[in-house]
Fold this sequence. Notes:
The chain is α+β, with helices and mostly antiparallel strands. It has two domains: 144 residues; 116 residues, no CATH class. Helix content is 15%, strand content 44%. A nine-stranded antiparallel beta sheet has the order 6-7-5-4-3-2-1-9-8. The longest helix is centred in the N-terminal third of the chain and has 32 residues. This is Lipoprotein.
Amino acid sequence: MKTTLYLVLILILLSCQKKISEKTQHKEFNTKTEIKKLELNDTIIYLSDDNDLALIKLTLIPNGTFDFHMSIYPETMQDSEPKPEIIKANGIWNGNKKTVLLNFEKQEKDSLNLNKIFDSNYAKENEFKVNNNTVEIDYSLDKLNIWGISCYKSKKENSEISTTVSTNSNSKFPIWIEKINLDINSELGQHQKRNIKEFNKINDSLSICVFILNDGVCSKYSLVTFLNQNEIDNAEIGIECDQDMSIPEYKWKEFEFLSTTTFQTIEFSEHVNDSLIDNNGYIKKGYDFMESKTTIDSIIKVFEIDKTGKITGTNNE
């Protein structure tokens, strides 16, 4: 009788311990799976720094989609300017504050090799993991090495439009103007790059943007007007080039905003005395442009931007 009672008590104890254990395991499981889902209010951009290999941009959009753009600069070829190789892809993303999973939309075979683009040989441990058409990235990092190129993370506040004068990748320009600039850069050759220098929203529909194009020799500034995000007009407003000291004349152009819709350009021409120029149009041997006495002429032009975005001007010489 006692033996039977002891057996019953042992079974009761074991049953209670099992239930306690199951509750504990269930609680631990819930704790591990309660990872807060990442929700973005602003667009996150990974943009490559200056390099001679490629322009790369990965954009995480708050609606759960992403865009990937990669423009590979071609090798310089004699007597020709080949176009860059462009890779575009998109898909959906999800994740948390630690990791984000990029699910790339399937493309034609061999058209998108994620293992080559996200090459672990050039990345830190666990920076990203590739599996078929998905890539898991470490979202806590401020930089990803995509195709061996450093791509820095920045936030683009969707509700904010800035007039900051800057070419830094962390500056806050509207996404639509950055996309236009990105498309232009993808069509340029390896030795040319265009950056946004200044952006200003005049009213709800009219905007102006100053771009600077560098080709390794000259920096050219252009002002472009946009009406409802569509380009309306443009004008070259500044230029500065490397100087050839054997040439007897040096020209450059500067600009200045007089108001939000009025600006002026000043064209300068600096030249040496005619007596220092040889028969071939160069400075005579033994003389140097920097050390010679020069004369500077200038022409000022004033321009107005009307409400439709058209640029009109008059000369004031």
